[in-house]
Amino acid sequence: YTKLTSIGAFRKESMVGHYNEQRFDGKPNGGFYTQDDIKEIVAYAKEKHITVVPEIEMPGHATAALAAYPEFSCTGGPFEVGTKWGVLDDVFCPNENTLNFLKAVLDEVIPLFPSEYIHIGGDECPKTRWHQCVKCQTLIKEKRLKDEHELQSYFVTQIEKHINKKGKKIIGWDEILEGGLAPNAAVMSWRGTEGGIAAAKAKHFVVMSPGSHCYFDHYQGEQKTEPLAIGGYTPLETVYDFNPIPTELSAEESNYILGAQGNVWTEYMEDFAKVEYMSMPRMAALAEVLWGKDTSSNYTDFKNRLLLHFSLLDKMNVNYSKALFEVKAKISASDDHLLKVELAAANPTSSIFYTLDNTNPNNTSLLYRQPIIIEKNTTLKAASFDSNTQKSAVLEQKFEIHLATAATVSLKDEPSNSYKANGAFSLVDGMYGDRGKFGRDWLGFSGKDVMATINLGSVKKVQSITVDVLSSPASWIYYPKHITISYSENGFDYSAESTISVKEIESSKGVVKIEIPTTSIRYIKVNAYNQGKILEGNPGAGEPAWLFIDEIKVDCLLYTSPSPRDRQKSRMPSSA
Ligand code: ACM
Ligand code: ZN
């Protein structure tokens, strides 16, 4: 199958910038590993006690192979090697000919790798083509399968039998659970931990790799100062907090958890220096998690040991991220419901200097000693300093204060673990999620509606309510079907619901505002209804859509801030 390397290994150009920008460099790019290359890699890894497990992706994510051999698709093609990444409808047609092709490829791959496992992918395979394909539908009837999911399961089982015959086991992404798990398959759980839990309960081995903790292609620090990443926010501390053995499992079931994997997908990593940057030091945190943290070990302890290791990494010229040195801001409500900002530096002996006037901080700026109370629109800038030398990038955070800032919010359903920002409080924290480099600040709900109730703490005169939602279909994020807003003075009798349609949401570019005649309000209900399953022809077709929501802003033009004397009085308890 020489066309796999002559055609399948080269694309005509690559994407530059973020996916949303759809910019391309016009430069051909490609390459492949020879058998000698593989032998060299495997031997080098072995010297370091590392086992290389190859992933031969099937039946989805196979456009490069189909560009070389379109006869193994449902439609016959033609296809070109992808210049965009993502989930594409054209996948392997799981018929006899394709199975023979893949078995032949595996027969060449297997002897090169001494690993016990061969990874066969299995993730993100849309069933769109299979549904319309005569070959697929005939196979479904012939094998008495229920649907296309069982067809995938049939396909994986055929591949598994072949690999088992060669003395190896298969591992695949959690989608291989759909339609029934092949008898001896191990599962790599990436869409949360549910797949891993189900597999362990069914006595299959599992490697945990949930997006919430193990995706090292996410941002690990402030998006404004970090290099471009796919999105998300998975800082070192989140990785260190990972528990690879879900509490849902019994002691016996826990034995099926082999460990975890950090995923370093390279769509946004143009060279090895960037791969190092995204991996380090998160790789160190995951390693410690997996080697086993003793109970006394906590993040602060790990961080302090890591700071010492940084000087070693410097000597070795490792391009590691210094996001750890960023000043971290914890935003919460003060006792008297004002916005409270607590700052912390990685190194407890560092000093933090900050400004509130949009200038860059230096070692003569305000020295941070106690939580900062933000009462009006402000840009906070802060950096950490060691003996007067600036140690971190500047943290820059804009706050826009409104009537619901630091109010109490309750959510019927919690956001997804991967996009939970600062929980429900993110909706009233005065901070607005970035619409380009989204990852932080937005709350993400996968397939779920948002039901939020805000308690302003006292009755206030209100004239408008604004809700921020996001759309980025390439990342499976969709505006809600519609949003409803209602309000109440006493918490029992609510106004009629205002309904904002998706058309109106689109034309307002996701900043949805209702204006009302000045009304006395204490409680506000905002419901945003998820699009549901992603429609055919779009990235992630058939998967649940994400709903991303940020600030719920409540305003009144008549509103005046409390008099300085009142403010002084009310602030006493929290600053004491
Ligand atoms: C994956 O991230 N599609 C496994
Ligand atoms: Zn087919």
Please tag this protein with its features:
25 strands; seven-stranded antiparallel beta sheet; six-stranded parallel beta sheet; binds acetamide; binds zinc ion; alpha+beta; 576 residues; globular; disordered C terminus
State Rg.
26 Å
Global structural class = alpha+beta
Percentage beta strand: 15-25%
Bound molecules: acetamide, zinc ion
Q: Tell how many strands the DSSP assignment holds.
A: 25
Largest sheet: 7 strands, antiparallel
Task: Please tell me the overall pLDDT.
Answer: 92
Estimate the helix proportion, in percent.
10-25%
Note the gap between the termini.
Answer: 74 Å
Shape designation = globular
Q: Runs with pLDDT <50, length 5+? A: 562-576
Total helical elements: 16
Structure in a nutshell:
The chain has 576 residues and is an alpha+beta fold.
Give a verbal description of the structure.
- The protein is of the alpha+beta class and 576 residues long.
- Helices cover 25% and strands 24% of the residues.
- It has 16 helices and 25 strands.
- Strands 19, 20, 21, 22, 23, 24 and 25 form a 7-stranded antiparallel β-sheet that branches. A 6-stranded parallel β-sheet has the order 5-6-7-8-9-10.
- It starts with a helix and ends with a helix.
- The model is unreliable at 562-576 (pLDDT under 50).
- Bound molecules: acetamide and zinc ion (ZN).
- Acetamide binds next to loops.
- Residues 123-124, 173, 190 line the site of acetamide.
